[in-house]
Amino acid sequence: MNRQRSEQLYEQALECIVGGVNSPSRSFKAVGGGAPVFMERAAGAYFWDVDGKQYIDYLAAYGPIITGHAHPHITKAITRAAENGTLYGTPTTLEIQFATMLKEAIPSMDKVRFVNSGTEAVMTTIRVARAYTGRTKIIKFSGCYHGHSDLVLVAAGSGPATLGIPDSAGIPTSIAEEVITVPFNNIDTYKAALDEWGDQIAAVLVEPIVGNFGMVSPNPSFLEEVNRLTHEVGALVIYDEIITAFRFMYGGAQNLLGVEPDLTALGKIIGGGLPIGAYGGRKEIMEKVAPLGPAYQAGTMAGNPASISAGIACLEVLREPGIYEQLDRLGATLEGGLNEAAQKHGIDLQVNRIKGALSTHFTKEPVTNYEQAEKADGEVYAQFFRQMLDQGINLAPSKYEAWFLTIAHTEEDIIKTIEAVNQSFIKMK
Ligand code: PMP
User: Fold this and answer.
1) Rounded to whole angstroms, how far apart are CA atoms 289 and 111?
2) Were both Cys, which of 63, 140, 154, 359 would link to 214 (CB 3.0–4.6 Å)?
3) Per-residue pLDDT tens for 125-150?
C-alpha cells in the first residue's frame, strides 16, 4: 500500500515532535511500528490521507466524533463563536446554557464546572472528593484509563498498557501508594479492599461501562454493590463518563444503567470535537470547590466560547429522535458481520458491543475484565489492523481500543467494512 507521503512526514515529525506524535496512542508502536497514517481531511464517516486514499473511520478521534466529522451544525456553531471572539476570561451566557443542558441530561450533577480535558476533569473530581472526605486514598479498577494525571496512571490501561508501561516514570511511589487497584467486575476483591483500607478511602473511580480495554459491561448488580459498599465506609463514588456519556443515550451510562454516583467526570463527546472536560455532582460536594470552598481548581481556557458552542451544537444534534436507535442498529449489523466472518474463517474473536461502540478481542474466552483483555492476541490484532487499513478501514492502532460508530456511518459503509473484515481474515491465514 502506498503511504509514501505519510512515511516522509513521519520522518519530518520525528525531528520536531517527540516520537512523531502528540499522543502515544497515535503511534503504530503497538501494531508493529512504522509511520502512522497522516490524515489531511475528514468529513462525515470518512478520512482522506495525505496520499489521497479514503478511509471509513471507526476511531472517531477515540470517541468524541459521534456526529461524524465536520458536522455542519457544529461547524457553524464554532465559526460563529470564533467570529464573536474566541476567549473572554469572563462568564458568558453560553456556559449557563450548556451547564443547564448537562444537568438536565445527567441529573446527578447538581452543579457543573467546565475544564479543558478529561484528564483535568478526573484529576479534579479526586481533589474534590479528598477535600470533602478529608481522606487521601482512592480505589480504581485495573486496566481502566482515567487520563494522565499522576494519581491515576497506576496500572492503567489504554495507551500505557498497550506500550507495556503500566506505571509511568516520573510518578513518585508516595503518590502511587495512595491508589489501590482492584479487578473490574469482582465485588469480593472490592469488598476486601474496603475491609482493609475503608476508613482511608476518599473515593472509588469507576468507568460504569469500561471503554479502555475494549468495551466491557458491568456484571448485574456490580455497580449497585460498589455504590452501597463505598457509601458504607463514608467514601464517594466517582464515575468517569468521559467515553460513556452521550455515547449510548442522551445522558450518561449512569442513566442507562440506573445507578448514581456522587461525582461525574465528562469529556470527549460533550466538546463536539473541541477540547473540553467537565465535572459535576451533588451540590454539597461541589460547594467544596473555589470560590465557594477550599478545593482550588481554575483554568484560563475553561468554558471558552468555541468549545462550549461546539458542545451545545453536538448535544442539539444528539437530542434529535432516533439517533441512538440508528447507532444501535448499525452496531448490531457490524457485530453480526464480525462474528459471522470469524466463525467462517476459524478466527477466535470476542466482540463486545454496547449499542454504537464495540471492541474486537482476538481470544477464545469472553472478556469481562482487564486480565482477560490482556490475553487477547496482539500480533493477530496488528495483522488485522494493517489488513483493514490497506482496505480503507481506519481502526485504532491498539488491541484495547474500541470501534466507535457515528451518525454519519451508513448501512453501505458497514457492508463494505464487513467485506474488508472477511478479506482480512482470508489474508491473515
Ligand atoms: N477517562 C477516560 C475513560 C478516557 O477514555 C480518557 C481519554 N481516553 C480520559 C479519561 C482522559 O481524557 P483526555 O484525553 O481528554 O485527557
Assistant:
1) 10
2) 359
3) 999 999 999 999 999 998 899 999 99
pLDDT in tens, 307-333: 999 999 999 999 999 999 999 999 999
Q: Residue 207: CB within 6 Å of ligand 1?
A: yes
Q: How far apart (Å, rounded) are the C-alpha atoms in residues 174 and 56? A: 45
**DSSP secondary structure, 164-214, as one string:** T-SS-TT--HHHHTTEEEE-TT-HHHHHHHHHHHGGGEEEEEE-SSB-SSS
Strands 39-43 and 263-267 come out as unpaired
Domains and CATH numbers, the chain: 4-70+321-428 (3.90.1150.10), 72-318 (3.40.640.10)
Give the Cα separation of 356 and 335 in Å (integer): 10
Give CA–CA dist 298/149, Å, rounded: 16
Residue nearest to atom 12 of ligand 1 (CA): 118
- As a whole number of angstroms, the distance between CA 219 and CA 119 comes to 26
Q: Is 268 a catalytic residue?
A: yes
Beta bridge pairs of residue 239: 206, 264
Q: Which atom of ligand 1 is nearest to the CA of 277?
A: 15
Residue 268 C-alpha cell reads as: 470527549
**Ligand 1 pocket mutation pick from 65, 242, 269 by most atoms within 8 angstroms of CB:** 242
CA 36 → CA 8, 29, 32, distances in Å? 11, 9, 11
End-to-end Cα separation, the chain, in angstroms: 19
**Which ligand 1 atom is nearest residue 207's CA?**
3
Give the closest residue to 384 by CA, choosing from 355, 356, 349: 349
- β-strand pairing of 236-240 with 263-267: parallel
240 flagged as catalytic? yes
What is the residue-averaged pLDDT of the chain? 95
Residue 88 alpha carbon to ligand 1 centre in Å: 26
- Whether 140 sits among the annotated catalytic residues: the reply is no
Burial class (CB in 10 A: 0-12, 13-18, 19+), 50: middle
pLDDT at res. 163: 33
Nearest to 81 by CA among 283, 413, 173, 73: 73
Question: Closest Cα to atom 2, ligand 1: which residue?
Answer: 146
Q: How far is the CA of 118 from the centre of ligand 1 (A)?
A: 5
- How many Å lie between the centroid of ligand 1 and the Cα of residue 347? 31
Question: Ligand 1: which atom is nearest the Cα of residue 267?
Answer: 15
